[in-house]
Amino acid sequence: MTEPCDLTAVEARRLIGRKGLAPTELLESCIARIEAVDHAVNAMVARDFDRARAAARKADDAVAHAADLPPLFGLPIGIKDLEETEGLRTTHGSVIFRDYIPTQDERVVAAARQAGAIVIGKTNTPEFGAGANTRNAVYGATGNPFDPEKSCAGSSGGSAVALATGMAPICTGSDTGGSLRNPAGFCGIVGFRPTPGLVPSDKRGIGWSNLPVLGPMARTVADTCLLLGSLASGDSRDPLAATVHGREVHRPGDFFPPAEIDLSRLRVALTPDFGFAPTERHIAEVFAEKTGLFRHVFARAEDTTPDCAGTDESFEVLRAVGFLSSHAEKVRTRPQDVGPNVRANVAEGQRYSAADVAQAQTLQTTIYRRWQAFFQTHDVIITPTITISPRSWRELFPAEIDGKATRTYFHWLALAYAVTLPGHPAVSLPVGVDRNGMPFGLQIVGPRGGDAFVLSVAAELERMLAGDARTARPVPDLAKLKAARPISGMEGFIGFD
Fold it and tell me: Would 497 be classed as within a structural domain?
């Protein structure tokens, strides 16, 4: 029998609205799942069960009297520990914020609550989201739900693991170099990087930078769309938020339900590496096998890529500038409390000149215009989500891939940041497993501003591939996780490196 926590968000919400499932029943199921398996993976690190139960009881009462309930009504939600939650510890994965309890929600959390979601807890993240391996010196490492000794990626790793194991039906995440997409790929769930500004941020330090974004995570594309519709807005606190004076630009119905789309009319580009990413040979071969099962359904499927020359150089500079803005003072005054990934990025940023930054921004614009030309003749791009199969979380970052050294600690994320730089929307869709039995994700990239479009493409692919064991969303072995030893007892669990 399916437990309530294993229902999709869409189905759970439908049942709540029809009085077929009480919010308290759903919440208790999620809490029971957390208590049963989280010892093995360490995903839900700060828990708000008492307040969640109180909110669920109020929701039970509201169901009996309210004719029009908000879209996320009664759905438990996990909040990434980079996002501030009123009254609930928010550490950013940093010992500096070990005891920090915010006095108010940041905008994305407030939006989820306003739409009826119930915050169940905070999901683990690497220190300040750096490094894409979810481990830190406050809560320790988060293990992959398919093998807790392996990485769940990051930085939204806790959210991805919570979703994969049924701890919550929806979660928040954020993404600069793939922090939504990479853990989605490693854990067999859906992560969506929206167009910058679509999900407004009131906390981004450099408000005009398109690199960091907030976005939704879930187990299915429809669930992801349901959450996105409640998070998107034209909030003026984010200078990148799309607005037209006097008119609401985004409505929940713009994204949910995802529109039906005819794949046979699409012109698709397929690439394992964007021409420069250090994709593992194993992953490139699995990508060819998976896409070989369905590439015939498109009007045209070409093995090609936009010209991404200069992506590494531009992203490295602009990313370092962001870290310099956010963390230079911490490194200067409390270096002993800052981990190696953050220190490395701050030191790199301090080496760059204004001329370096100007060149990086100019190159970013050149790459953006190349991408617009490419999308004149292509509708979507499909790639692997991430360059490698999951490795041990004890490895701070992959220093080599197929025997070749990586150029930075985040070089293995190149498939993701190739998309970040020009600002296009992209979704990671789970498509079976790789040859190691670990989840395999496809990254589907849409045109400029094509958020609803690319989600519709992903939803149609999801529907088409769900019936084939080779391409259906993989599900972790919950019985095995329940019986597993605590991850906290593993060597190297707590620490920066």
Answer: no
Q: Does residue 238 fall inside a structural domain? A: yes
Q: Locate tokens 């789970």: which residue? A: 430
d(CA 98, CA 81): 11
Tokens for 168? Answer: 């919550």
CATH code at 370?
3.90.1300.10
Residue in this structure with the two tokens 């199969």, named with its chain if needed: 389
Instruction: Please give the full DSSP string across 133-144, using - where no structure is assigned.
Output: S---TTT---EE
Report the chain's terminal Cα–Cα distance, integer Å: 42
- Long-range own/partner contacts, residues 293-298 (CB < 8 A, 24 or more apart): 293/465, 293/468, 293/470, 293/471, 294/461, 294/464, 294/465, 294/471, 295/268, 295/270, 297/263, 297/264, 297/464, 298/263, 298/264, 298/266, 298/267, 298/268
**From the CB of residue 439, how many other CB atoms can be counted at a distance below 10 Å?**
30
Q: What is the CA radius of gyration of the chain?
A: 21
Q: Name the domain count of the chain.
A: 1
In a domain, 495, yes or no: no
pTM comes to 0.98
Q: Cβ contacts of residue 221 below 8 Å, gap of 6+? A: 190, 258, 427, 429, 455, 458, 459, 462
Residue 170 phi, psi (nearest 5): -140, 150
Residues 408-459 have pLDDT tens digits of 999 999 999 999 999 999 999 999 999 999 999 999 999 999 999 999 999 9
Confidence at 244, pLDDT banded by 50, 70, 90: confident
pLDDT digits over 457-481, tens only? 999 999 999 999 999 999 999 999 9
Q: Which residues pair with 109 in a beta bridge?
A: none
Residue 470 CB contacts under 8 Å (≥ 6 apart), including other chains: 290, 293, 432
9-17 and 23-41 helices, crossing angle to 10°? 160
In a domain, 74, yes or no: yes
Q: Which domain holds residue 419?
A: 4-489
Q: Which two three-digit tokens encode residue 94? A: 């940093």
